[in-house]
């Protein structure tokens, strides 16, 4: 079977949806030889190519003059219908012009559940794309049970066609071995994720302020630089000048994993997630997580995390101190995490993905 894939994110975005797309494509090529992914993308900004050879269709010829977003939205679907038996939209949308069965992955509906986090124009665009995609798709993939429930709540008519397939972890994370790090010799915690209100980095800062200085770990944050980070820096300078904090941006995965494996914990008190990939990554590395108590994050972390009220800095601080002082508990949570994370290995999840593809073709025939 030839599966047309909206691969724009794989070729253009380093993290988040880009990682999701690349992992899925590589897993198909490695573990599902009966499926041939046909990758459609207007550009290749990253210079990335799949680990194994696959057909790639770029915006070329007469379409070169067409803006990338128009090619992706109105042309790629017609092209995919000529070369594939099924189409998979990897990021909440489907192109127009499809005449073959289709599947769409919905990562979250937080723009509906928490509109205060999104500008009005973004909410409008997201709503139009998701509404169109879930209505036209043969089947809908939700990345977690929490996302499945959100889709069913907001689009009740789709409930019978939603299937849960979590995001895949990178295969090499399961074999990653830490080497002694020169980054720091003192106890530290890690925050990993996009700098935005939803991820609640401010909650980490407030929690650390609660902990006495002689018991306070070093903070390492790994995220891009943006306006939210500047806002946090301003708050720290004014209210928390003695905070010990290192920040890293744009570092490769193996450097992130090295920092995680040396940490007391990943501290990720997000208010809400579609899934919570940093938690699953920490679990695979044997690192306990302190996570916001949200259903999606419970699925990502299982019993390898301590779940806290993200609005309560003292509760977050207590969890940090508990893990700082209890080496045995850290080891127990780490071992549980390694076991829990195996369900997100590409070799296991590809079977669920194949089942969705087969079902989508069957119900459309």
Q: Could you characterize the architecture of this molecule?
A:
- The protein is of the alpha/beta class.
- It folds into two domains: about 1-170 and about 345-365, Rossmann fold (3-Layer(aba) Sandwich), CATH 3.40.50; about 170-345, 3-Layer(aba) Sandwich (Rossmann fold).
- About 45% of the residues lie in helices and about 15% in strands.
- The protein is built from 15 helices and 13 strands.
- Strands 3-2-1-4-5-6-7 form a seven-stranded parallel beta sheet, with helices on both faces.
- Helix 8 packs across helix 13 (about 315-325) and helix 11 packs across helix 14.
Structural class call reads alpha/beta
Uncertain regions spanning at least 5 consecutive residues:
none
- Helix % is 40-55%
Q: What does the radius of gyration come to?
A: 21 Å
Element-by-element helix/strand order? EHHEEHHEEHHEHEEHEHEHEHEHEHHH
Strand content is: 5-15%
- Going by CATH, the homologous superfamily of the largest domain would be Glycogen Phosphorylase B
Count helical runs: 15
How many beta-strand runs?
13
What count of structural domains?
Answer: 2
Using the coordinates shown, work out and report the CATH topology of the largest domain.
Answer: Rossmann fold
- The CATH architecture designation of the largest domain is 3-Layer(aba) Sandwich
* CATH C-level name of the largest domain: Alpha Beta
Euclidean distance between termini CA atoms: 14 Å
Give, in spatial order, the strands making up the sheet with the most strands: 3-2-1-4-5-6-7
| Largest sheet properties | 7 strands, parallel
- What is the overall pLDDT average? 94
Shape: globular
């Amino acid at each position: 079977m030839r599966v047309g894939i909206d691969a724009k994110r794989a070729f253009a975005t380093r993290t988040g949806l880009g990682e999701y797309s690349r992992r899925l494509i590589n897993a198909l090529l490695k573990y599902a030889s009966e499926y041939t992914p046909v990758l459609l993308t207007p550009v290749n900004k990253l210079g990335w190519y799949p680990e194994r050879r696959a057909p790639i269709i770029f915006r070329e010829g007469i379409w070169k003059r067409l803006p990338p977003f128009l090619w992706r939205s109105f042309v790629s679907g017609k092209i995919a219908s000529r070369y594939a038996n099924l189409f998979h939209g990897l990021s909440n949308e489907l192109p127009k012009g499809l005449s073959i069965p289709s599947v769409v992955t919905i990562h979250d509906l937080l723009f509906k559940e928490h509109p205060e986090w999104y500008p009005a124009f973004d909410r409008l665009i997201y709503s139009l794309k998701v509404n169109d995609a879930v209505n036209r798709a043969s089947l809908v993939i939700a990345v977690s049970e929490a996302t499945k429930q959100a889709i069913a709540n907001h689009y009740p008519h789709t409930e019978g066609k939603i299937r849960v397939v979590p995001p895949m972890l990178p295969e090499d994370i399961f074999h990653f071995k830490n080497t002694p790090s020169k980054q720091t010799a003192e106890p530290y915690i890690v925050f990993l994720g996009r700098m935005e209100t939803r991820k609640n980095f401010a909650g980490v800062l407030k929690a650390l302020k609660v902990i006495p200085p002689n018991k306070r770990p070093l903070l390492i944050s790994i995220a891009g630089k943006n306006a939210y980070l500047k806002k946090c820096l301003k708050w720290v300078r004014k209210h928390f000048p003695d905070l010990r904090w290192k920040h890293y941006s744009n570092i490769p995965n193996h450097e992130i994993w090295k920092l995680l494996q040396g940490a007391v914990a990943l501290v990720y008190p997000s208010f809400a997630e579609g899934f919570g990939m940093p938690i699953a990554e920490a679990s695979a590395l044997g690192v306990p997580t302190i996570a916001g108590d949200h259903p999606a994050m419970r699925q990502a972390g299982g019993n390898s995390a301590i779940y806290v009220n993200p609005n309560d800095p003292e509760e977050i601080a207590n969890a940090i101190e508990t893990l700082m002082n209890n080496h045995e508990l850290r080891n127990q949570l780490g071992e549980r995490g390694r076991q829990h994370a195996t369900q997100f290995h590409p070799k296991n999840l590809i079977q669920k993905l194949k089942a969705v593809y087969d079902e989508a073709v069957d119900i459309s025939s």
